[in-house]
Amino acid sequence: MGSRLGFPFKKELRMGAACSSLPSVQDGAATPHSWETFCAASQLSPPRKVTMSLVSEFLGQLTLQLGGESEPKYPTVVPFGGFDPEKDAARIETAIKTKGVDEQTIIDILTKRSYTQRCEIAFAYEKRAKKDIITALKAALSGPLEAVILGLMKSTSQFDASEIRGSIKGLGTDEETLIEMVCSRSNEELQQIKQVYKELFKTELEKDVAGDTSGDFRKLLLALVQTKREEPSSVVDQDRIDQDARALYEAGVKRKGTDVATWISIMSERSVPHLQKVFQRYNNYSPYDMQESIRKEVKGDLEMSFLTLVQCFENKQLYFAGRLNDAMKTKGAKEKVVTRIMVSRCEVDLMKIRSEFKKHFGKSLYQTITEHTKGDYQKVLLSLCAGDD
């Protein structure tokens, strides 16, 4: 990026769109650091085609905030008042050049600026340093701190697409990550992920999911990725709620064996508010609640997928709080899980995740991070956490 782009592209950065050309995709495939690399990786010719792909991503982000099945935002990272991208870029350049690297300054700036503001910093940095900020940060940082900071330089959909790609194309499929990413994202988020995934990796997300999974697990993930979920309606259809609750019961607990296709159809196509009411009504038919029924009826990756779906339908922030608690209390702490959730949710709902964490585990997320992490990694996580409860 930088002066090569010219003024029109700076306008796009101020819209919060063009930073999606910056992130490094760490999957062994394309690694678009600079503008030219991104264009080459995307088989696009600047400026017009790239411009439209970036604008379409920005419009997709707007959809998440303003319409469709959007959810309320509870971010811990918000736009910084009195923002000065040139000043921030200069401070980051100095921090990188400092002997031993001034990690604290990098943390203080990039965890306290919104994604749009980080894009503007990236533009200003390249303009003054004549190199892109991703390359500079990769050279200056290492370990889990590097993973967090580089993650913050990606748009939400680009970060999610990269995580999914890594879970599929690593050494063996990382089903746990794949399940978390696909089963916890809304229809609109999945639509945006699919678009960015294709731009980055030159293949359809559905194709990669189908190639690395099998059986009913594959069928469920593909049904979710195909984004056929209905939009929420202001009309509560009690008859349909009852029909779906009974169908879930008759397809599982009531019979010998499980009619998985019926479960997949209902859980991948009905709106979230409708399903919340269906699970309540389900208790009128079954001696077990929906989660207990899933544990009795299916096993393995399919069980984990259905459980993740139901937990997210019922309380998505509690689901993520539980994931964070489990990851940090595992011996050695599952850094990848903690990093993924903290980065992907800090501008979405991390404040509410904090609240659910304290309510259900009796200790704040801030305190738990302090106890189970250390060094610069601890500092960057605490900064994203943005306070104790």
Automatic annotation (TrEMBL):
Top-rank lineage group of the source organism: Eukaryota
Main location: secreted
GO MF annotation terms: calcium ion binding; calcium-dependent phospholipid binding; cytoskeletal protein binding; phosphatidylserine binding; phospholipase inhibitor activity
Pfam families referenced in this protein's UniProt entry, alphabetically: Annexin
Compartments where located: Secreted, Extracellular space, Extracellular matrix, Basement membrane
Keywords of the record: Annexin, Basement membrane, Calcium, Calcium/phospholipid-binding, Extracellular matrix, Phosphoprotein, Repeat, Secreted
UniProt cross-references to SUPFAM superfamilies, sorted A to Z: Annexin (SSF47874)
CC terms in the record's Gene Ontology section: basement membrane; cytoplasm; nucleus; plasma membrane; vesicle membrane
PROSITE patterns hit by this protein: ANNEXIN_1, ANNEXIN_2
PANTHER family registered for this protein in UniProt: ANNEXIN (PTHR10502), ANNEXIN A2-RELATED (PTHR10502:SF18)
Domain comment, as recorded: A pair of annexin repeats may form one binding site for calcium and phospholipid.
Family that this chain belongs to: Belongs to the annexin family.
Protein name: Annexin
